[in-house]
Amino acid sequence: MGDPRAVGAQIRMRLPSLTPLEGKVAADILARKDIDEAMPLRAIAEGSGVSEAMVVKVAKKLGFAGFREFRQGLVDYYRSDTAALHSEISAEDTAGEIVQKVFRTAMQALEETFAILDLQAFERAADYLHRARQRDFYGLGGSAQIARDVSHKFLRIGLRSSVFDDAHMMMMSASLLGPEDVAVAFSHSGSTSAVIDAVELARRNGARTIAVTNYPDSPVARIVDVVLCSTAQNSPLLGENATARIAQLNLLDALFVAIAQRDRKAADLNLGRTMRAVQSKRRL
């Protein structure tokens, strides 16, 4: 693991792919701030109430070569400035403390999402969306709001897209897509059945598929051509989704710029046209 900021994200993002016991062990270990280079495997295993073999198994399922690499990764992560950004909100917090904690948690999500970003996947997504004849976005709830934000930005530079947040409409859309089109699934959990069903149909019809999700091993991530991952630390009050949306919005802003750069002259021309079109709606 080259970037220490990515360690915590790597562990959290793979928790859903673990068994309940493995997930508990991984979460217990991630929550420990007292781990150092000298802490033996036995001590960590005893702290989680499992065997040493179980700790090694969990380390490998999380993408580490073994316990020593897992331990060193955690040590490096907790020494990084990024790990220190997150603090839980308590009932006694003042308004100033609440604002600081919420902002710092969002900053952590941005730092960690940047650290785990697959630039090759990012480039492929930009190419697919730039060349597409039709761009259809699928999402429910908060994910649909992210899809709408992206669609709005695309329209500003002349790229047409459609947003679907109804299961039946998603399937109708997917049935009409073909090899020149792109379907983008927005799903924080990556397990929203309505979104997965639509993406599966779009892919069967030959369309390129992209997923924007928090979990690289999720059901939707396993069936698409390109996965763009965000990451965020869970919070009892804020939840994980709220913070992840901030990271996803920034990730998709970057994708928007990358697509615009592929034909900057056309993007600038269309941006000027769309800005002038709404200028008359502003009261001075």
UniProtKB/TrEMBL annotation:
Gene3D superfamilies: Glucose-6-phosphate isomerase like protein, domain 1, Winged helix-like DNA-binding domain superfamily/Winged helix DNA-binding domain. SUPFAM superfamilies: Homeodomain-like (SSF46689), SIS domain (SSF53697). GO terms for molecular function: carbohydrate derivative binding; DNA binding; DNA-binding transcription factor activity. One of its GO terms (biological process) is carbohydrate derivative metabolic process. Keywords: DNA-binding, Transcription, Transcription regulation. Residues 5-81 form the HTH rpiR-type domain. Pfam families: HTH_6 (PF01418), SIS (PF01380). CDD domains: SIS_RpiR. InterPro entries: Homeodomain-like_sf, HTH_RpiR, RpiR-like, RpiR-like_SIS, SIS_dom, SIS_dom_sf, WH-like_DNA-bd_sf. Residues 125-265 form the SIS domain. NCBIfam families: PRK11337.1 (NF008458). PANTHER family: GLUCOKINASE (PTHR30514), HTH-TYPE TRANSCRIPTIONAL REGULATOR HEXR-RELATED (PTHR30514:SF1). This is Transcriptional regulator, RpiR family. It comes from Rhodobacter ferrooxidans.
